[in-house]
TrEMBL record:
UniProt family annotation: Belongs to the TUBGCP family.
Gene Ontology cellular component annotations, sorted alphabetically: microtubule; microtubule organizing center; spindle pole
BP GO terms, sorted: microtubule nucleation
Entry's localization field: Cytoplasm, Cytoskeleton, Microtubule organizing center
Positions of transmembrane segments: none
Record key words, sorted: Cytoplasm, Cytoskeleton, Microtubule
Source organism of this protein record: Solanum tuberosum (Potato)
Summary of the function given for this chain in its UniProt record: Component of the gamma-tubulin ring complex (gTuRC) which mediates microtubule nucleation.
GO function terms (MF aspect): gamma-tubulin binding
Domain Gamma tubulin complex component protein N-terminal as annotated: residue spans: 68-319
Name listed for the protein in its UniProt record: Gamma-tubulin complex component
InterPro entries in the record: GCP (IPR007259), GCP_N (IPR041470)
Length: 332
């Protein structure tokens, strides 16, 4: 079954889920960026404050407390009183941040440093919500689940920072200090999800994207380890499909993600008279999209499963080795 046919058979997402943007992270208002602007992306010279009183009316010390409170909200994708979040019209993955122009310039600079982290969180959260639908496939489901677990840790960090702020122990410099270690990892993941969303990656394409990004980040051990961990999590379901094919000769691929295509229109009846029948040659074939870590063994995997499948179709029983049995044999 090809991926298009598999997707058409998937359960559809309820309309109420799509009609309520707060469930999918698509609730930010759109803004139009005019060409030729000299402002840094994320800091607007226009006053776009959601409060009645401009922040510049307060003393710098009070401004710092207000900005910290707003940034703690912005870090988890919620607008503050003097920091607003806008989505660029026509660009789903382009987020801008606007601040009250009367804000102290030093505080604007600190806010500007944290905006990339805020944007990364928003993009990753949107990806998790949209890629949890049935039609996106098992690999995207597993990848989204791993990202969701990471975001829970990130939100716990923000909650701890907010607790310190309520105790009066958090300054704007301290907020930047504690958030800085997360910047590289979150930005690397946001790059991955932007590419995956732009190319509508599913199955093998997601695994190849994670592999290539991990190799590209070879100079950053922390980020590379995180991407490799994400790759392992995303490939778990895929390897489950591979395991059934190699050990049983069965393709259990509900979303058409596996790199072996099955043509169910070909029947097995002619195998007993003609060993070189079309069933053997054309029933199963390799797709163009193959995971990079399986590319060298793709032909061997195809032939292995075909032999088992033919034996099963001809009525021969196949003994499926369990993981414990395999481990026992390897130790002997």
């Amino acid at each position: 079954m090809d991926s298009a046919a598999a997707i058409s058979l998937c359960p559809s997402t309820p309309a109420w889920n799509l009609d309520r943007p707060f469930l999918t992270g698509q609730f930010y208002q759109e803004t139009k960026i005019t060409p030729g602007t000299t402002e840094y992306k994320g800091v607007s010279a226009d006053s776009s404050s959601g409060a009645d009183k401009a922040i510049g009316c307060y003393h710098a010390t009070i401004q710092e407390l207000i900005v910290i409170d707003d940034l703690l909200s912005t870090l988890i994708g919620i607008e503050g009183r003097y920091i607003s979040i806008k989505k660029v019209r026509g660009k789903e993955d382009d987020i801008t941040f606007q601040v009250d122009a009367s804000m102290d310039l030093a505080l604007q600079e600190f806010a500007k440093r944290l905006f990339p982290l805020c944007e990364s969180y928003i993009l990753i959260n949107q990806f998790v919500e949209t890629r949890s639908q049935f039609k996106t496939g098992l690999v995207n489901h597993a990848f989204a689940a791993a990202l969701r677990a990471l975001l829970l840790d990130y939100q716990a960090m923000v909650a701890q920072l907010e607790h310190q702020f309520r105790l009066g122990k958090l300054s704007i410099q301290g907020l930047w200090f504690y958030c800085q270690p997360m910047m590289g990892s979150m930005q690397a993941l946001s790059m991955v999800v932007k590419k995956a969303a732009a190319n509508n990656c599913v199955g093998s394409a997601v695994l190849n994207l994670l592999q290539s990004q991990a190799k590209a980040m070879a100079g950053d051990h922390v980020v590379r380890s995180l991407l490799e961990k994400m790759s392992q999590s995303a490939s778990t379901a895929y390897l489950g499909i591979l395991e059934r094919w190699v050990y049983e000769g069965v393709i259990d691929d509900p979303y058409g993600e596996f790199f072996i295509a099955e043509n169910k229109s070909l029947q097995k009846e002619s195998l007993t008279q003609d060993y070189d029948a079309k069933y053997w040659q054309q029933r199963y074939s390799l797709k163009d999209e193959i995971p990079s870590f399986l590319a060298n063994a793709a032909e061997t995997i195809l032939i292995t499963g075909k032999y088992l499948n033919v034996m099963r179709e001809c009525g021969h029983s196949i003994q499926v080795l369990t993981r414990s049995h395999c481990c026992y044999m390897l130790t002997q």
